[in-house]
């Protein structure tokens, strides 16, 4: 897809992966709608884009709230590209989670992506064009101990992406899933204790930057790529999980968090 002149909506765009993806889409000539909860951080990103010469607009919305998703959809034109990047969640054992924890982790990223995509899907299908990107976590491929709510939502997001890809085949609307390894974003600072729960074996996968993930997201749209897992060590672990599931599961458990 050629991005110049296209409209791109990016969720979770106030910082990290979303902010970098928005900037890179704008650098390719797209108008970008940035969505997040923080007006102040969104304004900083819009300023960064416009000072560079790009076109961007901020939209404050809490995507855990279905009513706010509906209001957002009414406020923006149907995008040519929708990037479902927003995500929250703590790495906890199930009995460590409150009901609110589990509700929140289900609401974003999974329900947010499903409801927001639904809002635009009819218009995309009628138009016969569009692209939907899901930014997912490596735990959607390789389960780890001690993060049951978070990774359940990520597996659900994977299922949503795969289902959409089949449903939209032949319609002119494409679907990409971008799955990076550990990202040097604000997630681990905002969720103390999560980093310590990464299994030792998974620490063999190099950390990637938000800028690197943004490149992958934009490339997935430009090249109309269905799936992109990176770096190569993550792809190797994913392949190992399919070919040697018992061994991979054992090593993840053995080197992971236990009680």
TrEMBL record:
It comes from the Bacteria. InterPro entries: NAD(P)-bd_dom_sf, SDR_fam. GO terms for cellular component: membrane. The keyword Oxidoreductase applies. It holds the Pfam family adh_short. Transmembrane segments: none annotated. Keywords: Oxidoreductase. GO terms for molecular function: oxidoreductase activity. Belongs to the short-chain dehydrogenases/reductases (SDR) family. This is Short-chain dehydrogenase.
């Amino acid at each position: 897809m050629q991005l110049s002149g296209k409209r791109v909506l990016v969720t979770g765009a106030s910082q990290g992966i979303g902010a970098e993806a928005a900037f890179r889409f704008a650098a390719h000539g797209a108008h970008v709608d940035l969505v997040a909860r923080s007006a102040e951080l969104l304004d900083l990103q819009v300023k960064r884009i416009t000072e560079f010469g790009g076109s961007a607009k901020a939209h404050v919305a809490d995507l855990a709230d279905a009513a706010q998703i509906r209001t957002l959809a009414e406020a923006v034109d149907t995008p040519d590209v929708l990037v479902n990047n927003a995500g929250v969640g703590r790495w906890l054992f199930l009995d460590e989670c409150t009901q609110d924890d589990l509700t929140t982790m289900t609401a974003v990223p999974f329900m947010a992506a499903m409801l927001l995509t639904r809002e635009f899907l009819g218009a995309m299908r009628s138009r016969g064009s569009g692209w939907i990107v899901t930014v997912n976590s490596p735990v959607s491929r390789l389960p780890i101990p001690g993060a049951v709510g978070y990774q359940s939502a990520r597996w659900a997001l994977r299922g949503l992406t795969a289902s959409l890809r089949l449903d939209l085949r032949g319609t002119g609307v494409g679907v990409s899933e971008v799955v990076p390894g550990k990202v040097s974003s604000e997630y681990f600072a905002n969720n103390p204790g999560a980093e310590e729960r990464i299994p030792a074996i998974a620490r063999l996968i190099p950390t990637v930057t938000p800028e690197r993930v943004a490149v992958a997201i934009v490339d997935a749209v430009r090249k109309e790529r269905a799936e992109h897992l990176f770096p190569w060590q993550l792809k190797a672990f994913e392949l190992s999980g399919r070919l040697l599931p018992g061994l991979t599961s054992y090593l993840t458990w053995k080197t992971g968090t236990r009680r």
